[in-house]
What does this fold into?
Amino acid sequence: MDKKEIILNAASEVFRRYGISKTKMSDIGRESGFKTSSLYYYFTTKEDLLQQMIARDLAKIRESLRQSIGKMSGLRAGLKKYLITRVEETEIFKRYEEFFQGSVISPPLRYFLKQQEREMRKFEHEILKDFVINHGPQYNEQADTIVTLILGISMKLSVFRSFDNDDMETINQKVESMIDFLFRDYKGEHRC
Amino acid sequence: MDKKEIILNAASEVFRRYGISKTKMSDIGRESGFKTSSLYYYFTTKEDLLQQMIARDLAKIRESLRQSIGKMSGLRAGLKKYLITRVEETEIFKRYEEFFQGSVISPPLRYFLKQQEREMRKFEHEILKDFVINHGPQYNEQADTIVTLILGISMKLSVFRSFDNDDMETINQKVESMIDFLFRDYKGEHRC
It folds into this structure.
């Protein structure tokens, strides 16, 4: 693990412990085992560090999502895998919710979050659309509609997971029944 | 309009103007035209007022949602109407987001919001499930799955509306194509 990664992990730990607004760069320095002054080589401010942490976590999520449909061949199986992966991966947002409790989100951070969210949505729409077009050619014309449905399902699943505390077994069953209903007329495994 | 309603409307206006944390009961008194002391007859604290405002707004939304599928006979038409109504009605949440900007949400309020959200979700699941069972008897066994799909669609539509600023025309088209795809094998107008 490189030094920057160690610092970000230490920061994550102290954010969880004290909340973001009460954390000082010196707390992060102490937790990471590095001199506070050396943190500024990587991060100009605490807010910069937070933004880099979020960007790193989102990049990891994108990579997992990409892999989840990379190796699958069937439309239904691929989309199920994608949805399960997405529910698992986005549990990290629960941690951020904890970080932010009792903290006011500054306007620049709010802007950054909206921007990241927009990019994430664009990324998801694009990889899912490619996948649908490649694996279910009979649905080509409805690809955008299908992707929107899948993304709607993923939002609802996140609510089941984080608010209703559904276990992954239950999430799995819901994914199965929704995708099977959605593609109840799907025939065979088309490949390109 | 009764006095309580006048006070809540005045409060909504000052919350929008100053944000919740900076608003004082005396600001609400001034805006409403009533003596501040008389406000306490209806509301014990500013937070109580806020909770009552939220409860009132959610009750209105539930009423609109109920009406949206009350008169419709077809499965597809009813669900489309429901989704459009839901997107329109929940624009009110944008106003609350504005209220809360720069304010910390207190733990009791957070608890109240989660509780309200849970009740709302339960309400929506129930009326939609009844509707699906009554209007598309061929889907009876999948009623829960379908309702979950519809609620997922509604979440995604709210994102389109509030983040991507989709106009209602665009929302309408998305609703059309999603519901038509979802019930592409739906035959006729069954009634009970």
Notes: Chain B has two domains: 1-43, 50-182. The radius of gyration of chain B is 20 Å. Residues 94 and 161 of chain B are 10 Å apart (CA to CA). Chain B has a mean pLDDT of 92.
